[in-house]
Amino acid sequence: MDNVICPVCGCEPFDEPCEHTVYVAANECGLIYIAEQYRSQYETVVEQILKEHGELEEGDSLSDEDFPCDYAGELQDRLKIESIVYETVYGMPPSGLTVYAAFIENIK
Question: Were 13 and a residue from 21, 53, 70, 103 both cysteine, which residue would form a disulfide, CB within 3.0 to 4.6 Å?
Fold first, then answer.
């Protein structure tokens, strides 16, 4: 599998998240990283998506493993954060091999 590379600075955010990394995730081991300033917005959207698809019951809380790999397109459509580049590096859910990443394109 190819490494996930930040399109802005070229670092490998699975090893060391750079300042451009919003989140990097793999369904094999859950959410690896999400920038603190986006966590609550991200978690709200993920919770809505998982509840709509019956993967999270009312009253259940979101865990780090609840990254919606099967619904990455919905996440991208709903998580409206400006200047975000979404990158699917490898996708074969539910095999445990999906890697999904998002990066800040322009830091001001």
Answer: 21
